Every structure is written in C-alpha cells, then in structure tokens.
Amino acid sequence: MSLKPFSEKFRLIWLHCLVWVSIGIISFFSMLQADGAGRSALSACNSCVFYALIVYGNINFLYPRFYQKKKFLLYLLGSIVLLVIAGFGRGYLSLYIRNEAFAAAPHWLDTWSHITFLLSVTTVFVLSFVFRLAMAYFTLKQQSEKILLQQSQFELRLLKAQVQPHFLFNTLNAMYYEAFMEAPRTALLIERLSDIMRYFVDQSTHEYVQLSTEIQFLDNYIALEKMRIQPEPELIFQRSIDDQRRIPPMLLMTFIENIFKHGIDKISGRNKIYISLFEKEQYLVFQTRNYLNRHADPRQMQGIGLKNLRQRLTILYGNDFDLYTTEENDEYFVASLKFPLT
C-alpha cells in the first residue's frame, strides 16, 4: 500500500488543525484583556467547536447533499436548523461557563442576546463558503502538481522509449548501406522495413495522417509481403483520390493484412489481388478482391481484425460507415470499406 495518499491526507488534516488553532489564538487574545486568561481560553474553545460545527456541517453535509443536488428548500431548512443549534448551543454553553466559573451572580439572556447569537453564527456560515473555496483551491493545486509530475514522468519515459527505435533505425540504415552493393534486393527489403517501423513510431499515434502517408505505408507492407511469397502474387492497386486528404491511421491496413495472412494459396500459387481506393461523394471507398484460399487452415482464427476495425469505426464515425465482406461466385473474397473524409 502506498503511503503517498495517506501523507497527503495527513497534510490536509494538519492544515485544518492549523486554521482552527489560529482562530482559537486570535479569539483568545481578543478577549484576554477584558475576561482574563481562564475565561478567554474557555470561550475561545467554545467558539471554535461551534464554528467548526457550522463550517463542516455546511460544506461536508448540507452543501453536497442538498444544494448541489438542487434541493434548495431542504438546504434552506437544514441551514436554519444548523444555525439555531450552533448559535444557541454556543450562547448557552458560554453563559453556563460564565455563571458557574466566573460570575458573582447568575446572568440571564434577553431577546437581543439571542439575536446576537444567531447573527454571529450566520456570519460564520457565510464565511464557510470562503473556507470551502480555500479547500477546493488547495485540493486543485495538489491535483495540478500531481498531473504535472505525471506528465513530466511520462515525457521522460517517452524520451527513453525513443532511444531504442532510433537505435534500431540507425542500425537498419547501416545494414542497408552494407547490403546495397552486394544484395540490392535485400537492401530494398531493409529500406521497406525501416519505413514501416518509422510509420509505427512517428505516425500511427496521430489522430490523423495524410492519405499519401497511409498509401506509402500500404505500398511498403505489400512490397515486403510480395518478396517473401513465391511465386510472387500478381497485385493491381488502382487509386483515384486526392492523396492530401487526411484519415485516421491504420484504417486500411486490416484488409491488406487479411489477404496476406489468410488469402494467399501457397500450394496452388493462384494468387491475384485487386485493390481499389477512390473518393465518392465525400466518402473514401476502399475495396479488396482476391481468390479464395482453398488450402487455408480452417483452425485459423479469422475475423478478429475486422471486428476490431468495426469497433474503431463505430467510435470514430458512429453509424456513418459501411464495412462488409462477402464471397463472390464461390471464387473471390471481397472486402469493402466506406467512411467519410474530412
């Protein structure tokens, strides 16, 4: 169990105690010359107890339970009851202390004394809102400092985390130059891989990316996949769109990934892929079409990527998108995605 929340709570309690001790000392010295040390000390303690009852009764009970829930009549009635209890309680206890310990003859209260009791505690009741604002300020200040500390720690971790990708990029670049003269195809493979990884690090966390950046990422991924498949699949990628448009990153990747994960028939080698990307009435339409893989492992889990994609599209666009997959003529697998452009 962390001791930090406990220490913060302890500090807050000490702050409250310091406030009330200060009020008590001020009350004591304000009455000291007229009433003497003993009576001034008792009166100060008596006042602090009932003042605290008013302050905490209001800000911890009445205000959150009634006022903040717009139960204004109950709040008014509760405030009156609190003021009567605190005002008369303080007054009668003060009178009892005076008559029992300090007065030569009993002293009785008149009507004006009762009014004075109520007026004095009403002033404290009003000041309780100031006390509440002060508490809220200190709490907010602590939360702000905590958030700033967490942000600084996050930024530090982020800087540390960037060391490894940048080291890897530098290593890949060195490998690329080493391989370029001896094995150009391998060098091209390294370059594609480096671009893909840089996309993940620099772009995939952004809210939006340029469509040209997303297309380049798809081209690099497709190039890598085609290199590892023999015979190399035939792929036709038709696009007719303004590549300066912006879209959320990684929305198009799922279709391409599914083709190379589930749609490539390595036994027959009959692999032809059609991809189209175009704009229609302020919507982006992305479609893929590939031969059904007759030798696919039926135990492979499929549809998880599409399920996640649908959930993400729902978060981004509500119901303003279309996503479907189908088998065409028992020969082709077709996937289609349509969502609004910004």
Would you write up a description of this structure?
This protein has 342 residues and is α+β, with helices and mostly antiparallel strands. The protein folds into 2 domains: 4-153, no CATH class; 210-340, Heat Shock Protein 90. The chain contains 7 helices and 7 strands, in the order H-H-H-H-E-H-E-E-H-E-E-H-E-E. A 5-stranded mixed sheet has the order 2-4-5-7-6, covered by helices on one side. A hairpin with a 2-residue loop joins strand 4 and strand 5 (283-291). The model has no long low-confidence stretch (mean pLDDT 78). It comes from Chitinophaga ginsengisoli. One of its GO terms (molecular function) is phosphorelay sensor kinase activity. Residues 155-230 form the Signal transduction histidine kinase internal region domain. The chain crosses the membrane at residues 12-34, 40-61, 73-97, 117-140.
The amount of beta strand, in percent, is: 5-15%
Sheet with most strands: 5 strands, mixed
- Element-by-element helix/strand order: HHHHEHEEHEEHEE
- The Rg value, from CA coordinates, equals 38 Å
- What is the CA-CA span between the terminal residues? 48 Å
Low-confidence stretches: none
- Specify the helix fraction band: 55-70%
Rough outline: elongated
How many domain regions?
2
Placed side by side, the strands forming the largest sheet appear as 2-4-5-7-6
The quaternary state of the protein chains shown equals single chain
How would you classify the helix and strand content by structural class? Answer: alpha+beta
Q: State the helix count.
A: 7
Report the strand count.
Answer: 7
Mean pLDDT: 78
Protein name: Histidine kinase
Keywords: Kinase, Membrane, Transferase, Transmembrane, Transmembrane helix
Transmembrane segments: 12-34, 40-61, 73-97, 117-140
GO molecular function: phosphorelay sensor kinase activity
